[in-house]
Design a protein that fits this description.
With 335 residues, the chain is an alpha/beta fold. The chain has helices at residues 42-49, 134-138, 140-154, 170-181, 193-201, 216-223, 238-247, 269-275, 287-300, 315-323; strands at 2-6, 15-19, 30-39, 65-71, 83-86, 117-121, 125-127, 162-165, 185-190, 206-209, 229-234, 248-256, 278-281, 306-311, 330-334. It binds NADP nicotinamide-adenine-dinucleotide phosphate.
């Protein structure tokens, strides 16, 4: 079968197209899936450029969507022909988080989905939403589920709340779609006026160019009559957290998700304490969260925003496109 592996030391030029042995038939409790699509995340970019260490020869890509080709003995959740999508933490089925690293994550600690076929335990996948293309389904494993968990599971968003989403990457666009569909007011930021225009066409209520208005939290306070937002989807990290704390209302919720500006930095602890906010770190979510999200996507009709789909052989170009920040929403791979 066709696959991509990553040689070490990692780098985009170390992504290699290879022929690997077919994984064969599924054993008890397993399914064989023809992978048709994956999607790019900032995390995958970290693996392929070597910011996140991985093993020599690792098959990259955490997200995988495709069709069940065969089922092993005892599998009753899936049937041959079902459209399925992979989970980020194959061993986190339900309940609260217990994992704090990427040792079990496909495309990082174990081989991922830049390949045509995989045989895995059935619980490594969930059903994909009805009516979704494989590329659309592939956007859910990481970006979709992170946005869902941040807003629905952790922040317990309700109609009438106001949400701030930072930038126009995969997680943020999903967050704005969920938030709008659930009756929230959304404030969106971007470094690009063109992307801000696209945010408005998706229903974002207020937009801020964070390059031009470096003090973007002040604008958020203007838009909310000084109150601040109920929830911030914080994907920036050290350079944006201070503003996120200022932009969030007293008693509000900050979903600490991203590292776009780095991995450590100063925190205005007194501001944070006085505002009595909740700062919730999170990594994606459980299989149960994914099943709940799939149901919600079917009922709401939300469809992922896909900027562009590249062929598997163009994987290095796809990552270069992502690294250049040219995308709006998700980038996908057709496999
Ligand atoms: N904790 C988790 O479970 C989890 C899950 C998924 C992702 N993440 C993290 O969340 C972050 C976003 O991931 P992603 O996959 O959505 O990335 P992505 O699709 O590559 O999005 C990157 C976008 O972020 C925006 N951005 C960059 N610097 C910014 C800044 N200083 N302020 C505001 N926005 C900024 C840019 O938007 P504009 O071009 O519009 O300016 C850029 O296009 C990454 O750090 C990733 O590692 C964490």
């Amino acid at each position: 079968m066709k696959a991509i592996t990553l040689r070490q030391p990692a780098g985009l030029d170390q992504l290699q197209r290879v022929e690997l042995a077919d994984p064969g038939e599924p054993g008890p409790g397993e399914i064989r899936v023809r992978i048709h699509a994956s999607s790019l995340n900032y995390h995958d970019l970290g693996v392929v450029v070597g910011r996140l260490p991985s093993a020599d020869g690792r098959i990259p890509m955490s997200d995988g969507a495709g069709v069940v080709e065969a089922i092993g003995e005892g599998v009753d959740e899936f049937a041959v022909g079902d459209a399925v999508v992979s989970t980020f933490f194959p061993s986190w089925l339900d309940g609260g988080p217990t994992l704090s690293d990427f040792a079990t994550v496909p495309g990082d600690g174990v081989d991922g989905y830049a390949r045509e076929f995989v045989v895995r335990p059935a619980h490594w996948f969930t059903r994909a939403p009805r009516g979704y293309s494989h590329a659309q389904a592939a956007t859910l494993t990481t970006a979709g589920l992170t946005a869902w968990r941040a807003l629905v599971v952790d922040a317990q968003l309700k109609a009438g709340d106001t949400v701030a989403v930072l930038g126009t990457g995969g997680v943020s666009i999903f967050a704005l779609q969920f938030a709008k569909r659930m009756g929230a007011t959304v404030i969106g930021t971007s470094s690009s006026d063109e992307k801000l225009e696209r945010l408005r066409t998706l229903g974002v209520d207020h937009t801020i160019n964070y390059r031009r208005d470096a003090d973007w939290s002040a604008k958020v306070l203007e838009f909310t009559n000084g109150r601040g937002v109920d929830v911030v989807v914080e994907v920036g990290g050290p350079d944006t957290l201070t503003h996120s704390i200022r932009a969030c209302r007293t008693g509000g919720h900050i979903a600490l998700i991203g590292t776009l500006t780095g991995v450590a930095g100063p925190v205005p602890t007194v501001d944070f304490m006085r505002r009595q906010q909740k700062l919730q770190g999170l990594i994606v979510g459980s299989r149960k969260h994914q099943r709940d999200m799939v149901r919600a996507l079917e009922v709401t009709g939300i469809k992922p925003v896909i900027d562009r789909t590249f062929a598997l052989d163009e994987i290095a170009d796809a990552f270069a496109h992502q690294a250049a920040g040219k995308h709006f929403g998700k980038l996908c791979l057709a496999i």
